[in-house]
Design a protein that fits this description.
Largest sheet of chain A: none
Distance between the termini of chain B: 29 Å
Structural class of chain B: mainly alpha
Helix content of chain B: 55-70%
Largest sheet of chain B: 2 strands, antiparallel
Strand order of the largest sheet of chain B: 1-2
Order of helices and strands of chain B: HHHHHHHEEHHHHHHEEHHHH
Distance between the termini of chain A: 49 Å
Helix content of chain A: over 70%
Oligomer: heterodimer
Mean pLDDT of chain B: 91
Number of helices of chain A: 1
Number of strands of chain B: 4
Strand content of chain B: under 5%
Number of domains of chain B: 1
Low-confidence stretches of chain B: none
Radius of gyration of chain B: 24 Å
Radius of gyration of chain A: 15 Å
Amino acid sequence: MSDLIFIAASLVFFIVAVVYLYGCKSLKGGDDNA
Amino acid sequence: MTANGWLQIAVFFALVLLTAKPLGLYMVRVYERQKTLLDPVLGPIERLLYRLTGIDANAEMRWTEYGAAMLIFSLATILLTYAIERLQGAISLLNPQHLAGVEPYLAWNTAVSFATNTNWQSYVPESTMSYLTQMVGLATHNFWSAAVGMALAIAFIRGISRRESKTLGNFWVDLTRGTLWVLLPISIVYALALVSQGVVQNLKPYDTVKVIEPQTVTSTGTDGKPVTTTISTQTIAQGPVASQEAIKMLGTNGGGFFNANSAHPFENPTPLSNLLQMLSIFLIPAAFTVALGKMVGSPGHGWAVFAAMTLLWFAGVATCYWAESQPNPLLHGVDQRVVQMGAAQSSGGNMEGKEVRFGIANSALFTTVTTDTSCGAVNNMHDSLMPLGGLVPLSNIHLGEIIFGGVGSGMFGMLIFVILTVFIAGLMVGRTPEYLGKKVEAFDVQMSMLYFLIFPIVILGFSAIAVLAPSFGTSSLSNHGPHGLSQILYAYTSAAGNNGSAFAGLNANTHWYNATLGITMLAGRFLMIVPMLAVAGNLATKKIAPPSLGTFPVNTPLFTSLLVGVIVIVGALTFFPALSLGPILEHLLLRSGVSFS
């Protein structure tokens, strides 16, 4: 059971990190060359 | 302090200076895919790896793709190491001591720790990890996490040097080339050098030997009555140490094969091996300054950054060496057998927790070097440092480990400080800030500030909770008062900085500390890398304007001074209140004759 919790926790962290990554990108706004 | 001690510190730095340029230029050739002497050997291996994994080596990645690839890779390596640790008891291969599987909290903490280049160890390696786990689970991570850091630093430098580009390179190629061309060849030669000094390298079961003088030990039994035991044998741990030791230092990983780390005679037996270990910590980070200068077309800028790092390093080592050379006021004069002022038989100063073969100077230098970077290996016990001596490693990590810094991570951390410095310089003269011809705009500063804010939030947040929780926070302490605060603060600082050294004295192998330190390591690594990559990606898209009268030059002593000033001010504003309640208060109380048990 503990194993599943830690594997799930790792997955959740990295999913959050990917969302955070694209969140940072969205802060930049539309024009890539601005 | 002695002239001999300063001479050894000077020799160390001269070697760093001598090696930085050739290695830096070599690294540029590696990452820019130019010809090197090793191509005939490593080229076919690289191409085979790409063929087996289906990687298109010519494909370029945007910063988001680069970051996502790095995150996926790190997740996969964490899960792999976690599985190896949990299953080691069921695998007889390379487990001569028949060690059981690692319990889940500790296994997760360790997997995260090695994937983030922290190498925090809440366990005694020689009695917890099998040879298989050490070699496949941990030593390989030493290569991977270092290569990831180097790849990210190169991506950042490309962001500065490229003009109007949407891409930063290919993560998989950078990872492969950093491992194959830089880390592996140096590690092989280095491991052999360590073996020549007496570092062990074998797969034998542990030796059991008879001690010369059996010891009688009295302890309290489970029934509360005293139990007397005579100890007549000793177990001497063995293992493939040299191969792990080399990359442990070169990759600024720091996780020891043995619990005593580089204070163990099988890990670091001689003054020469000690010098090699310290040099190898700074080797790649120092070379990165040369690589920066070369890749952005301004060697002077690389050396200006090198100079800033050198100034901060020197301030740290001078303070630590001075602090440890002083006698402990609570011991001095109390017992004439304790020689603290220097004599023919003693180097003087605070020798508690230090190896006699290294002495004060090489212990202070090691402590400074290992915390300037994200290494965290120790050749002396940081918990035994004098309060102001202990302030140095704490402060070094609090500054962001940018004093040469971790392999790659030190460089990109320093470059974020450069962005901030250029921004502040622009504000001071009322012009749009420019960095090497690229305008620094709101998004760059927002992402830089995000990078800076995550670090103190996780350190101070978790430290505050632990300090206020007697049941799971302060119950792990060996000392109370300001030293206890330093122990907790150091643990979270080390985890967030991905350093991995410990103040010791804190029993971190508890559910609370294993879980929260794991979260701190993840946040301190990946949540800081993302905004850094965002800055790099944004810089890459910009045009490069030619220098004008209003351009702030970044290759001058003025730039170096301003950069050092910004680093110190940011660090002091963030962490001075906590430090004043820890090591600084402890120093003042110690001078008044007060200590805490």
